[in-house]
Amino acid sequence: MKLLLETLTSGADYLAKRGVEDARLNMEHLLAHVLQCRRLDLYLRFDVTLQEAELAPLRGLLKRRGEGEPLQHLLGTVEFYDSEFVSDHRALVPRPETEHLVHLLVDKFCKGAPPARVLDMGTGTGCIGLSLAKKWAQAEVTLADISEDALELARLNAERLKLSSQRCRFLRSDLFEKITSEFDLIVSNPPYIPSGELAALSREVKRDPLTALDGGASGLEIIDRLILECPQHLSAEGLIAMELHYDQATTVSEHLQKQGFRSIETARDLAGIERFVFARRPELKTETE
What we know:
Mean pLDDT: 95
Low-confidence stretches: none
Distance between the termini: 80 Å
CATH superfamily of the largest domain: Vaccinia Virus protein VP39
CATH class of the largest domain: Alpha Beta
Radius of gyration: 21 Å
Structural class: alpha/beta
Number of helices: 9
CATH architecture of the largest domain: 3-Layer(aba) Sandwich
Number of strands: 11
Helix content: 25-40%
Strand order of the largest sheet: 7-6-5-8-9-11-10
CATH topology of the largest domain: Rossmann fold
């Protein structure tokens, strides 16, 4: 048996020695998860004695976190845009940068007139598309991914959020391979890590599916396919919005410009990095032109 404060301190030290960033915060989350309480409630229970039945599962979680398993996988869920999403090995862990993309779409780029038809390309957990479906009650959202495992996870999250199957459609597709519809908004957090940088990623990020990370030799292979293939699937004033790697905004903007996209604009994430790009559909040429 141990006091809660003693357990918290020793667990944080254990994680810190194994290279876990924000070790104490991680330990607080794990301890609150095991005790089924809020993290802040721990501070009111420092003098409580923990029993072996509580310490045993905590030891297992600590070992796995120390070996680099993401905290979100251990907790089983992650908070994203005021909702709770199941997060595991089947898809990319939802990150604050992606949440900021949703905020930009809702509060700025689509504020006046929410799109009626939305495509979340490479949906993963469904965090982008389902958050937008929850915010825009009239929107029909298609969530597409090449991974059936990811789509199973997205379906699970849709059920948890009580989003109607009539409004949310799930489709297994290699980008636009199976897409036949037209959309007012296409949003994507595509694989954008250059293949040569994968080995240097953190232990935690390496637990994400490779297909959600690997953007090919340049990091732009999937993004360039998106840019080339999406115009025929956008409505006349349709918007494409993408999350990018830290150094890709200028290059991607140039690629969009070469393809005739209009109103190209970039935006920074909360760390000040140009992380997002937005653009309107090109004027499509008619057969007589």
